[in-house]
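Expect chain and fold; see below:
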Amino acid sequence: MLKHCNYSDVAVILIHEIYGINDHMKHVAQMIATKGYDVYCPNLLNRDHFHYDDEADAYQYFKNEIGFGKAKKQVLNLVDSLKSRYKTIVFWGYSVGATVAWLCCEHYGIGDAAICYYGSRIRDYLNLFPKLPVLLLFSEHEKSFNVNWLVEQLSCKSGIKVELFKGQHGFANPFSNNYHPDSERKAFELSLQLIETIQKTKKNVLT
């Protein structure tokens, strides 16, 4: 597991792509940690990360050896071990990790928000109604599906905010050929704003 401890009362559960805990996840974890939050990135693959050149192998490994059900269970087990120590828990995932975060949202009391970057497989779970606020961040151009159709389907669900960004799948990954710096910056700002809003809301309730 990759983790950063700042002795915060906010824990961000960072959920990786099919490649595992690679340089991108280390980069994101560091960015989040610099904002003062604690970060936990579980190794859902239980092995070393795949390289981008091994995309086909990474996909097959995730599909055959892990799958969304097992990945979700690992994340929820981690949350169970952390929730007594934190006032706020946020899921933050990329690609398949975003879909795992989406699946975790169907349960009451397991977290306070979910941030999902280009979770294309969310389209397979449109019957899910999140029990916590969700921020969905998609690229304007997706090769594998009609992103505008998906946004339309998701926008009608309560508690969900959907944003589209210039670029393609992977726009927020500096190590990807599809990296779009401006889109990454804007998406990261929105992600932080959601966490800050959750914190303010909880503070107001307590006072």
About this structure: Helices lie at 23-33, 55-82, 96-104, 147-155, 181-206. The beta strands are 2-4, 10-15, 38-41, 88-94, 113-117, 134-141, 160-168. The mean pLDDT is 95.
